[in-house]
Amino acid sequence: MARVLSLYRSLSLHRPLCVWGLAVRRMSLEQRAQKVFAAAVEGVQPDVVVRRSLQRSGDCLLVDGCSFTLRHNLHLVGFGKAVLGMASEAERILGDHIVRGVISVPVGIQEALRNHGKGHMLLGANSRIEVLEGARHNLPDADARRAADRIRQIATELTESDILLVLISGGGSALLPSPIPPISLEEKQEVTRKLAGAGATIQELNTVRRALSQLKGGGLAHCAHPAKVVALVLSDVIGDPLDLIASGPTVPFEAGPEEVWQVLERYRLNDSLPASVKEVLGQAKLRPGKEEMGEEVEESRVLNVVIGSNGIALQSAGRCARELGLRPIVLSPAVCGNVRSVANLYGLLARFGCATVDPPAEWAQQILQLGPEVGVESWDLYRAMRVLREGHDEGWGVTCLMAGGEPTVELIGMGRGGRNQELALRVGLELGGERPLQDTVFLSGGTDGQDGPTDAAGAVTDGGLQEEAHSQGLDSSNFLLNNDSYSFFSRLSSGRRLLLPGLTGTNVMDVHLLLLPTSSTHPRQ
Ligand SMILES: Nc1ncnc2c1ncn2[C@@H]1O[C@H](COP(=O)(O)OP(=O)(O)OP(=O)(O)O)[C@@H](O)[C@H]1O
Ligand SMILES: O=C(O)[C@H](O)CO
């Protein structure tokens, strides 16, 4: 009887695992790709990353190995698209140690989160944190300016025994405008708009923004002196550069105006600048340097921690991929460059990984040549190619190649789309052709849930895309010429390939997943 019971117990213990294994095996690769994407987003949810980074035990707060004593002395400010969820979790953890707070968030975000079932990211009615909405269309406006003024006021009133907790995420630059007088808000807006319109990168844009602002480029940390400053940063910039994310308001920097002039000259804007901007840039030094503030004091007073990033999203995706029976490899969290080149790279990697015999050496050469164009280091490409071939030779089933970043689209048409949908369409075409990789699946999605001005985050494609489109009378190249990827995917098979997670409340750029069946399901290449 005892043996029967123990057999029964062991069978019941294994049952959930068996059922799970069976359920996983029944899941299509497309469904698995969607689950892996959801896990990437889940791993960088604002509440999740704040919970991971703030450890509280009584009145002791531990952040990134540094401890702070809580004595109802914590003031909270924040700015960016994801700080609402970060603030509500911080308040849950820190309770009444928060004296007061102000966060600057995009117009309509509270309603949008409520409508997307993300009510837990909103602040309660009794919250000590005030939420101010501004920066309509991602442009600094009078509302964002008022929020920035309130944030500056909080910071300047702090004493040595206070702690300023600063929550930072993408979109923070537009939500914290505080131009150095005599520059007006309109003049600052004009400079940023012209730069963005001329194709300046976020690095170039923020180099200029932080030189014209009282709060960016370390200005906020400077205002908060002598209080301690703890900044928690959700990164939306490749490489997670603290001085550039939201233009680095808590990162002390000493810069003369030379590098700013270089950017302005590059885009031929130096002659058309407003007189006020020229006056500010004419000053020898834009901000008090470390020596004026006491270098050691500055460095121990301000703590900046990246708590969420594309790399962290990819780690979370990797764990989920493994649970779903896939073999994860991270290619890079820094993919950039034109979507055409990025699509080309993924197409080549797919053919390389799926080739039934050793792939020709020129394929590897072409892959390595594309690296610098798309921000991927040669050693990452070497490693990925080696792992892909090992997986193939040893019959390891499906490999999930994961990458992230923010490629760019050359906008030449008038259609609707986004960089993720356009990338997915281009990769779908790369996987097709004369010898289609029918079973290879590619997903590209924006972690904020919104790809360009559409309600989709991206799309999922495979080697059968072209044939499917053709059979439905859709000419993919016409859609591509008109940057109309959203219309393409909406019309193809009633939109089944669109990725529609809704607004996610976070933003760490985009995630790309390439699922490569390394078994012999492919025709000989
Ligand atoms: N029709 C289109 N087809 C392809 N891409 C488009 C189209 N229209 C806009 N885009 C791209 O969408 C991007 C802007 O959308 P979105 O707001 O999602 O990105 P973002 O500015 O990087 O913001 P975030 O960092 O919050 O994702 C730009 O990169 C732009 O080139
Ligand atoms: O706000 C900004 O400056 C951009 O989102 C980059 O962080």
UniProtKB/TrEMBL annotation:
<dbReference type="Pfam" id="PF05161">
    <property type="entry name" value="MOFRL"/>
</dbReference>
<dbReference type="GO" id="GO:0005737">
    <property type="term" value="C:cytoplasm"/>
</dbReference>
<dbReference type="InterPro" id="IPR007835">
    <property type="entry name" value="MOFRL"/>
</dbReference>
<dbReference type="InterPro" id="IPR037035">
    <property type="entry name" value="GK-like_C_sf"/>
</dbReference>
<dbReference type="InterPro" id="IPR038614">
    <property type="entry name" value="GK_N_sf"/>
</dbReference>
<feature type="domain" description="MOFRL">
    <location>
        <begin position="400"/>
        <end position="510"/>
    </location>
</feature>
<dbReference type="InterPro" id="IPR025286">
    <property type="entry name" value="MOFRL_assoc_dom"/>
</dbReference>
<dbReference type="GO" id="GO:0005524">
    <property type="term" value="F:ATP binding"/>
</dbReference>
<comment type="similarity">
    <text>Belongs to the glycerate kinase type-2 family.</text>
</comment>
<dbReference type="GO" id="GO:0008887">
    <property type="term" value="F:glycerate kinase activity"/>
</dbReference>
<keyword id="KW-0418">Kinase</keyword>
<keyword id="KW-0547">Nucleotide-binding</keyword>
<feature type="domain" description="MOFRL-associated">
    <location>
        <begin position="33"/>
        <end position="281"/>
    </location>
</feature>
<dbReference type="Pfam" id="PF13660">
    <property type="entry name" value="DUF4147"/>
</dbReference>
<keyword id="KW-0067">ATP-binding</keyword>
<keyword id="KW-0808">Transferase</keyword>
<protein>
    <recommendedName>
        <fullName>Glycerate kinase</fullName>
        <ecNumber>2.7.1.31</ecNumber>
    </recommendedName>
</protein>
<dbReference type="InterPro" id="IPR039760">
    <property type="entry name" value="MOFRL_protein"/>
</dbReference>
